[in-house]
Write a structure and sequence with these properties.
The protein is mainly α. The protein contains five helices and four strands, in the order H-E-E-H-H-E-E-H-H. It is extended, with a radius of gyration of 23 Å. The two termini are about 40 Å apart.
Length: about 160
């Protein structure tokens, strides 16, 4: 497949996904609410198409994960063939990412939380939520530090010194 045609396909796929996402968001926000949820004698309003929005987000997440994994495996195989040292660097980064998730899991807590007046005690979801939050904190911090370093030009100055 030529690079131009792949770019065109990716562009139109992006446009289609954005249009479908906008339509689903419009149905979520504009269609209406139901008052069927009763908790402790109180009626709560819920958007009618919450399930549609959630399934769409799950589908997008699943497709994204599959695409990232497939492209990573393809890139790793091509790097093993052409540049084995670079492939080893990729494995090191993968090990660091796995270590981040393992560390976040070790720090996570499954203590019950109060939700709408009831204790939420599903330990799996509580642990998963904590892991996601900790990983986001670490990745956000790394991103901010790398952005500051890139904006200050520290690496450019170091490269000039080497040359």
């Amino acid at each position: 497949m030529k690079a131009g045609s792949a770019k065109t396909i990716a562009h139109w796929l992006f446009v289609v996904l954005m249009v479908v996402s906008a339509a689903i968001l419009a149905t979520f926000y504009l269609v209406g609410f139901d008052n069927s949820t009763m908790i402790a004698g109180q009626s709560y309003t819920n958007p009618e198409h919450t399930d549609l929005l959630m399934y769409w987000m799950y589908a997008l997440l699943g497709v994204s994960i599959v695409c990232v994994l497939l492209s990573t495996i393809r890139q790793f195989i091509s790097m093993c063939i052409s540049e084995p040292k670079s492939a080893v660097k990729g494995v090191i980064y993968l090990v660091l990412l796995i270590a981040l998730f393992v560390g976040a899991y070790a720090l996570s807590d499954d203590a019950p939380v109060m939700n709408n007046g009831k204790a939420f005690t599903d330990s799996t979801i509580l642990k998963f939520t904590d892991v996601c939050i900790y990983v986001q904190y670490v990745l956000l911090t790394v991103t901010a530090v790398c952005t500051v370093i890139a904006l200050t030009g520290v690496f450019k100055a170091a490269n000039k010194i080497k040359a």
